[in-house]
Design goal:
Number of domains: 2
Number of strands: 11
CATH architecture of the largest domain: 3-Layer(aba) Sandwich
Strand content: 15-25%
Keywords: Signal
Structural class: alpha/beta
Largest sheet: 6 strands, mixed
CATH superfamily of the largest domain: Bordetella uptake gene, domain 1
Helix content: 40-55%
Family: Belongs to the UPF0065 (bug) family.
CATH class of the largest domain: Alpha Beta
Order of helices and strands: HEHEHEHEEHEHEHEHEEHHEH
Radius of gyration: 22 Å
Shape: globular
Strand order of the largest sheet: 2-1-3-10-4-11
CATH topology of the largest domain: D-Maltodextrin-Binding Protein, domain 2
Protein name: Tripartite tricarboxylate transporter substrate binding protein BugD
InterPro entries: BUG, Bug_dom1
Length: 329
């Protein structure tokens, strides 16, 4: 009995410490940092800042800041969180890169599936298939006919290797069974400028980057990659790819919240509860709608649903990336 009690005492003390830590989380005066693995000012950075603001109140007024750690296709910032102390004070807000990094980034220093705790999915940002304004097609079916008539002569722009527009473009080519000349740019800005100017023919990019250009009629829009039509005024008349007969074509640049592996379960629950409260905040929803994003309301806002979704996305994108033979060092 004496040996048993000596074994149980440390375990009891550990359980009490973990419980107390979770109960006190976040501790007064301690800052929660959300790491964004991309530069400030981009769509992911904006989502993170909106989320941080919306989570402050349900976290008891805690200070939540955003830290931009860009580079290597988003893996530098992700690795920073994977190696951080597992106490709930360092989090990661990442997009579809969590599903593409395992295949896209060479020598990745962590495992997406096992080195993180999944807190929950935040939003979906659909993509749009757009073209230069002078392209002689007025709807999606006419676009397909034009593509088939111009095989070997089509330029497809993107914001750089591994970018959302690059990934969507690869999937689009695969769906069309047509090889197009990929034209990578250093960001969406210059790619969009050349599309508007007619230097490239097509692009598949996030609604956060295309809605304004579509509304201003600077580019032509043919379809959205969501499973349902969007309600945004400039996009509401666009059909989905699946409506147009492209089976299982669904691409969204989702954003999810992650913590280092080993973060205590009660702390993760506290974070998830606060995140779910943020996702129901009218101001947060309005801000996301302004970006063309759809706030998650299904089981993916729960850790298990989030993790299962990312696993399915890894399986979806891995063969596409391997077939294209593109990598980030």
């Amino acid at each position: 009995m004496k040996i048993l009690s000596k074994t149980l005492v440390p375990l009891a003390l550990l359980a009490t410490a973990v419980g107390a830590h979770a109960q006190d989380f976040p501790a007064s005066g301690k800052t929660i940092t959300i790491v964004v693995p991309f530069a400030a000012g981009g769509p992911t950075d904006r989502v993170a800042r909106d989320l941080a603001e919306a989570m402050r109140k349900p976290m008891g007024g805690a200070t939540i800041v955003v830290d931009n750690a860009a580079g290597a296709g988003g893996s530098i910032g992700a690795n920073k969180v994977a190696k951080a102390q597992a106490d709930g004070y360092t989090l990661l807000l990442h997009h579809i890169g969590m599903a593409t990094m395992p295949t896209l980034v060479r020598n990745i220093p962590f495992k997406v599936e096992t080195d993180f705790e999944y807190v929950g999915l935040v939003n979906d940002v659909p993509m749009t298939v757009i073209s230069k304004p002078t392209l002689p097609a007025g709807n999606y079916r006419e676009l397909v006919a034009w593509i088939n008539q111009n095989k070997g002569k089509i330029n497809l722009g993107n914001a750089g290797v591994g970018s959302a527009s690059h990934l969507c473009g690869m999937l689009f080519q695969q769906a069309m069974s047509v090889d197009m000349t990929a034209v990578p740019y250093k960001g969406t800005g210059p790619a969009m400028t050349d599309l508007i100017g007619g230097q490239i023919d097509l692009m598949c990019d996030q609604t956060t980057n295309t809605t304004g250009q579509i509304e201003a009629k600077k580019v032509k829009a043919f379809a959205v990659t969501s499973t349902k039509r969007l309600t945004t005024p400039a996009l509401k008349d666009l059909p989905t790819m699946q409506e147009m007969g492209v089976k299982d074509f669904s691409v969204s640049i989702f954003h999810g919240l992650y913590a280092p592996k080993g973060t205590p379960a009660p702390v993760l629950k506290r974070l998830n509860d606060a995140m779910q409260a943020a996702l129901k905040d009218p101001d947060f929803i309005k801000k996301q709608e302004g970006l063309g994003a759809v706030v998650v309301t299904d089981n993916r806002m729960q850790p298990a649903g989030h993790k299962a979704f990312v696993a399915a996305e890894i399986a979806k994108w891995s063969p596409v990336i391997k077939a294209a033979g593109v990598y980030v060092d």
